[in-house]
Amino acid sequence: MAVLLSEGVGHIRVAFDRLDGRRDRHGLATDAADAAVKSQRQLERVYRRAMGDLLEVSDIRIVIGCRELYRRMTAMSDDVVSVADRVWYSRVEET
């Protein structure tokens, strides 16, 4: 999940770099925002699989710790998607 989260943030960084209208004639910022959202959708799938795997763990401390870590990762992932949506919105407002 951390790798996918990092990937999404990297795509957001690229989207911000390309928001300058002179350099984004071909929608490169929105392409990067799309890539960020796609990576975060993959993170959601990994999250669901990991939560299912926790059902097999009998140590409650591990379950609670992992659940909290997974929850925080998905919260950050939701933030990445929100920023990507704002990139899209800003490009729509420019046109």
C-alpha termini separation: 35 Å
Structural class per helix/strand content?
mainly alpha
Approximate strand percentage: under 5%
The helix/strand order is HHH
CATH class: Mainly Alpha
Count up the helices.
3
Q: How many distinct beta strands?
A: 0
Rounded mean pLDDT is 91
Chart the SSEs and their pairings.
Blueprint: H1 2-17, H2 28-54, H3 60-94
Helix pairs in contact: 1-2, 1-3, 2-3
Description:
There is one protein chain. With 95 residues, the chain is an all-alpha fold. The chain has one domain: Methane Monooxygenase Hydroxylase, Chain G, domain 1, CATH 1.20.58. The protein has helices spanning 2-17, 28-54, 60-94. Helix 1 packs parallel to helix 3 (60-94). The longest helix is centred in the C-terminal third of the chain and has 35 residues, at 60-94. It starts with a helix and ends with a helix.
